[in-house]
Every structure is written in C-alpha cells, then in structure tokens.
C-alpha cells in the first residue's frame, strides 16, 4: 500500500500495488502490518482492529450518507469499490480540528483500486456513479443504531460538489433517513 496524505489530517488515500500480465492481475487489498506502516509513515497511529466488514450494492444515483456513529461506538472505515464506481466523501466533524466542517471527496472505482482510510470523527457518504456499484468497507466498531447519526448530503454550509448533481445529470436516490438528515449546524457531532 502506498499512502497519500490528503488536505484533511487523518484522511489517507491508499494506492494498491497491482501486478498484472496477459492473464490478468493480482493485488493485496489489505494487510494489517502494511496498513499500520502506511499510517505510521504519515505520522499517524494505528487504529483499533477492524471488527466488521460491510458490502453494499447500489444503482447509479444512489446516495448513501452522510453517516457516522458517536462515541463510544465511533467507527473508523477503510473503504473501496470492487465493481463500478462511486464518488466518496468524508466530512471532518471533530470539534477543535483545524479542518472542522471541511470535506474531501474522490472517485473510488474497480478500475483505480484506490482505498480511503476514514478515521473516527468523520461523517461519510458516497454517490454511486454506475449501476451495480459494489462498495466494501471495514469498520473499527460494530454497527450501533443508537449511536448512528446523519448529516444532510446537500448542506450548503459543507458545499460538497457531487458529480453530475448540479448539472442535472444525476438525481440522488436517498433513503428516507438520509433525506431527513439535519444540516451540519444542527447535527450532534464529536
């Protein structure tokens, strides 16, 4: 794994090493020791162990998020796409952070094989850019419905530029709970 720092402290893009030939390709999608070394190379400590893997499948236009869990069940997430593509976003919700309220987004796809490490203290969401997009994420704590919170995906105070949405090319398809999520200023944060 090659770690790449982002403008927001804590968020790390991980580029996989891919070995290919005429038969296809191979990549090591996760290695605990390699993950810890990659974070340490950027001056970060190792997170708690991963305890749960999640896999979602979404059609083009499905927008999931912005989700997070409050302590004591806050989750760090290592996310990737293994089929299709998604625009992935993390929002810093750590009070006192110099980047509090800022977002970072990038395309994750089966083709680019990029992963994003999102530590606890961030809201997370993604927009499926293709039908049959398969999104995988490892989490550092179990799902806890009492700790789960959401922030409005289209909060103008955050100003996420979801690809294709402003242009009218994509109409986000939301779950009812995401459609009713509060704006950042009214959300219960870290």
From TrEMBL:
The processes (GO biological process) annotated in the record are: dTDP-rhamnose biosynthetic process; polysaccharide biosynthetic process
UniProt cross-references to SUPFAM superfamilies, sorted A to Z: RmlC-like cupins
Which pathway does the database say it acts in? Carbohydrate biosynthesis; dTDP-L-rhamnose biosynthesis
Question: Under which EC number(s) is this enzyme classified?
Answer: 5.1.3.13
Annotated organism of origin = Roseateles toxinivorans
Instruction: Explain the purpose of this protein.
Output: Catalyzes the epimerization of the C3' and C5'positions of dTDP-6-deoxy-D-xylo-4-hexulose, forming dTDP-6-deoxy-L-lyxo-4-hexulose.
Q: What taxonomic classification does the UniProt entry list for its organism?
A: Bacteria, Pseudomonadati, Pseudomonadota, Betaproteobacteria, Burkholderiales
InterPro entries in the record, alphabetically?
Answer: RmlC-like, RmlC-like_jellyroll, RmlC_Cupin_sf
Under which main EC class is this enzyme filed? isomerase
The catalytic site is made up of: 67 (proton acceptor), 137 (proton donor)
Give the catalytic activity. Answer: dTDP-4-dehydro-6-deoxy-alpha-D-glucose = dTDP-4-dehydro-beta-L-rhamnose
The subunit field of the Swiss-Prot or TrEMBL record says:
Homodimer.
Q: Name one GO cellular component term.
A: cytosol
Q: Which family does it belong to?
A: Belongs to the dTDP-4-dehydrorhamnose 3,5-epimerase family.
A molecular function annotated in GO for this UniProt entry is: dTDP-4-dehydrorhamnose 3,5-epimerase activity
Q: Which UniProt keywords apply?
A: Isomerase
Q: What is this protein's record name?
A: dTDP-4-dehydrorhamnose 3,5-epimerase
Task: Identify the residue position(s) of the site Participates in a stacking interaction with the thymidine ring of dTDP-4-oxo-6-deoxyglucose.
Answer: 143
Q: Which PANTHER family match?
A: DTDP-6-DEOXY-D-GLUCOSE-3,5 EPIMERASE, THYMIDINE DIPHOSPHO-4-KETO-RHAMNOSE 3,5-EPIMERASE
Residues spanning the membrane: none
